[in-house]
Every structure is written in C-alpha cells, then in structure tokens.
Amino acid sequence: MDWDCGFSTNSPEFLQLGTEEMEELRSEKTVKATKSPEEIEKLTVDETLSPIEKADLLLRTGQEVQKVYAVQQLPCLLETNRDQTLNKIVPRICGNLPSASANIQTAAGRSLGVALSRNLIPTHIFSSSFLPLVIRLINSRDPSVSSVWLDALLVAVPSLTKDVIRRDILSLAVARSQLSQTVNSRKSGCLIFGAIAQKFEPFWLKREVFPQVKSLCQDVDSEVRITMCSQLHIFAKCMNPELAKSCVLPELTELTNDEEPAVREAALESIANVVSHLPVETVRTVAVPLVVKIFQKSLTDVSSPDLTGVARLLGKLSHQLKDVMTADLRDWFVKFYCQLSRFDDPVNEGRPHSVATPTTTVRNGMRTECRRLCAYNFPAMVQMVGGGGYVVKLSSTHQDLATDDSPRVRHTVASGYHEVVRLLGDKSMSAVGIYQKLLNSKSVEVLQGLAGHMTETLKGFAKSANLSPETKHPGIPELIGPLITAEGVAGSCRQWRLHEQIVTGFSSLVHCLTTDQLYNKIVPILMKIITGKYVRPVKLASCQSLAVVTRHLRKADQRSAVVDRLSR
C-alpha cells in the first residue's frame, strides 16, 4: 500500500487525530516479554536427562503446561521404554490424576486411549492401575473429562477378562443407566453395554444385560433412546438369530413408532444393520413389510423430517434386503426411490413469484437435502436393478438429478458417477449422456465431483464400447466437446488442483479417442497449457498427459510434429 498517498498529512483522517494520538503512532513501542527470566528458569529442563527422567521430573515439579506435555508423551514412552515407563511413569500419573486439573485429566485420558489402541499397556496392569482411576474419572462432573475417560474404557473393554467386566464394568454400566442419573450418564451406560456385549454368551446377555437395555430403549429422553438404538445391532450380532428375533426386533419395531423423528430414523438405520443377523424368513415376513410401511408413511406428510431419514437410508436398506425381496417388491422400491428423488413442493408448483418465508425456506432446504441423499444412494439402486434395468427404470431419474437446480445435488451425482459406470459394466455407455451434461454444467462444484475419478470413468466407457488403443475404432467423439468445456472452466477458476486433475484425466482419452481425434483436439489443449501462464503443477500434469497421448499416436508425422513443437 502507498502510505504517502493513502494517508497523507493533508488528508481529513490525519487532521482529525490529536497530538497525543500522532505521537503514539510515531513512537515505536517495545513488546513486553511474555515470560520473566525467573519464569523461564523454572520452565527450563536439563537437556541431558533421558525422556523417562524428564517426564518424571515434569510430573513431580513442573507447571501445569509441563505436566500436560509429560502426560501426552505416555504412548511414545511406552513404545520406546515400556518397562521403565510402567514402573516409574505410570504410578506417578495414577497418583497425581485424582487431584489434577481438568486439562491434565483430559490429556491423560486421551493418551491412555491411544496407548490402549496400540496395545502398549498389558491387561493386568490396566486392570490394577488404571481401571479404578477410569471408573472414578468417568463419574467426573466435568463433561469433557468424563467423555475422554469413557472413550478410553470403551477401547479397553475388548481386552479385559470376563471376570473383570462382570465385577467392575457391568456394575458401572448399570449404575450410570439409572433414571436418576443425568442424560449424558445414561447415554454412556448405553455405550458401555454395547461394548461388553461382545464378550459374553447369548443367553447370559439375555438374562443379565438385555432387561437393562430394554429399559434404556424406553427411556424418557430421546437422546438416550437414540444412543441405545445405535447399539442394538451389536446385541443382534452377539446373539443367535432366534434370540435376536425375540429380543432385538420387538424393541426396534417399537422404536420405529417413536414420537421423535430422530429416534425413528435411528431405528430405521438399526434395522439396516440388524437384518443380516436375523433368520431369513423373519427378514422376509417381518423386516421387509416393516420397512415398506415406514416408507409409505413417510410420503403421507411431505413436510415430515422422516423423509430425509428415509432418503439417507434407502440405499443401505435396499442393499441389505434385495436378496430376500421378490421382483415385484424390488420394482416397488425402485419406483419409491424415483418418486422420492423428484420430491418437490406441489403447493408452489406454477408459482414462480411466491414469497419466501422462513417456513418455506426450511421446507425447500429439506426437499433439496432429500434429493441430494437420493443422488448419494443412486449407485445402490443401480446395483439393485442391474445394468439391464438401468435404461428402463433409472436413466430418466439419473438425468433429472444430473440437471437438478441445486449445485449440491449435481455435485453428489458427479461424485458417485464413477460407481455407476463400474456397476453398469458393459452397459455404461448408456449413461454417457449424463456424463456430458455434468461436464457441460460449467459448475466448479460439479467438476470437483467428476475430476477425481475421471480416469476410471473414461476407462469404463472404453471397456463398454470395446475400444482399445491397440485396435482401430471410431472412438467416442461426443466426449470431446464436454471435456474441452470442463477444462476451460477449470482453467479459468482459481482452483488449480481441479485443473490439474482434469488435465491428468486427459491421458485416459487414449482409450476413448482415435489418433486423429487426439491429435486435432486434445494435443492443442495440452500444448496451450504447457506454453501458457499456468501454475507449475498444472503444466507438469499437461506434460505427463501429452507424453502418454504422443506415445499412442499411430501416425509418425503426428508424433514428429508434437516433438518439433516441444523442441522450439
């Protein structure tokens, strides 16, 4: 900035300042040191000390920030010198933690979780030294401390013996699940029950644990019901199919009728996770009709938040249930999906000048999110109908989503397009028109979804059309124009990484285009980038793509022309 021109002594701003203000501006103030020499001396540690000695010193005499640092080094110390750490540092940490500050307790909980996940602490030492401390700090009034130590306990449970779990952990879970406890406490009880379920036999779980689980499924707070619902698939997995049918399924059925939409959505997701652990006949006669009923009910109220939950889980449920569905039921699922993906406001249809209100804005946002989730689940629906059913049942819906008014919806379609090509296999050329529309959208957000998987997409088209660089073929000329458009959009925006990805993807066009198409259409673009004012990574990507393209040019004069141009 030109300070003389921008703030001269004759400017009105300058004249408004008083003499004292001007002197303060002209004076050069010295920044006060943040630490005094005495404080620096206290924080200084002898560099000749070993890591173990340094950690021990800091834990004994250091300030809080130093103690936090020492505690954070626990996993590293265990990796480099386990015996000394267990004999010297661990007892020091365990002795200081009960009276330590929340910062130190939180840091210790995180370090313990990391150490446990790396199997750095023997089970017997954890049970004798850390477990009493874990149980004590889980009951801390500070939510951050309690949460961190709960995470550490959940990591430790799989390695604990059944006796320790029965004696210490089960009683902790039961105590924290009582209705007199706080909501966060009851939620932690749900998570602990889910963790210990994997350690015991089915009938013991049914007798000793599941009554408490059932009570939590009926808790007065919706957050607790959601948390317990998220753990039910673990119980279904640990039980045999018949027990899962008699214990878990009734609770899920009841939760799907809950008064809270978030609970109903959690129950629907849990059904998707549970069906693989139920008897096949039960899935066919109970689970599938239940899901269909939920889907049908969601459409009765177009303003219901259930629709977004259904849209999010539709793909997962279709994948889990497709093997037990009849052909008619599969068709129903596909039609329901197509209806949901075109979900819009019928009330405002034909009213382009309607006034937006907070209610309509929220409603329209929900509809957009619903369509975005449908776009996310599109590959799952392609997997259900197969390549043969794509054109008849899904291609029009695919096109609608690819041309949706919302960039977020189109971006989601673009991000999953390579999966559609993979699933369609030799039928993927039937979706090439959608690819053209996405490339021609001139939206940076859409191109970001396509660019990362351009290579596999183009190779999928080539395989579908039986094209090969080693054989004569007509190519896929309809891709040239959209790809050139996409490169132009990427080159004119400020996101050079997007441009780099697209230019890198051009190397795969050797599978899709003829020699003349490559030489006349693609080589000039790559040359323009190499000789133009572009960032170095984009130029490097262009050079690499040009090298690949040149190697696949069949005509010697074309290869020579490229080399001559580069050598000038």
Overview of this protein structure:
There is one protein chain. By secondary structure, the protein is mainly alpha-helical. The protein has helices at 3-6, 12-16, 19-26, 37-43, 51-61, 64-72, 74-80, 82-96, 102-117, 123-138, 143-156, 162-176, 183-196, 202-217, 222-229, 232-238, 241-255, 261-274, 280-298, 306-321, 327-341, 358-376, 378-402, 407-415, 417-424, 432-439, 444-451, 454-464, 480-492, 496-505, 515-531, 536-551, 556-567. Helix 8 (82-96) runs parallel beside helix 10 (123-138) and helix 27 (444-451) packs across helix 30 (496-505). Mean pLDDT is 88; it is low at 1-9 and 345-358. Pfam families: HEAT.
Short description:
This protein has a domain at 41-160.
Describe the secondary-structure layout.
Blueprint: H1 3-6, H2 12-16, H3 19-26, H4 37-43, H5 51-61, H6 64-72, H7 74-80, H8 82-96, H9 102-117, H10 123-138, H11 143-156, H12 162-176, H13 183-196, H14 202-217, H15 222-229, H16 232-238, H17 241-255, H18 261-274, H19 280-298, H20 306-321, H21 327-341, H22 358-376, H23 378-402, H24 407-415, H25 417-424, H26 432-439, H27 444-451, H28 454-464, H29 480-492, H30 496-505, H31 515-531, H32 536-551, H33 556-567
Helix pairs in contact: 5-6, 5-8, 6-9, 7-8, 8-10, 9-11, 10-11, 11-13, 12-13, 13-15, 14-17, 15-18, 16-17, 16-18, 17-18, 18-20, 19-20, 20-21, 20-22, 20-23, 21-23, 22-23, 22-24, 23-24, 23-25, 24-27, 25-28, 26-29, 27-30, 29-30, 30-32, 31-32
Pfam families: HEAT
GO molecular function, one term: protein phosphatase regulator activity
Organism: Geodia barretti (Barrett's horny sponge)
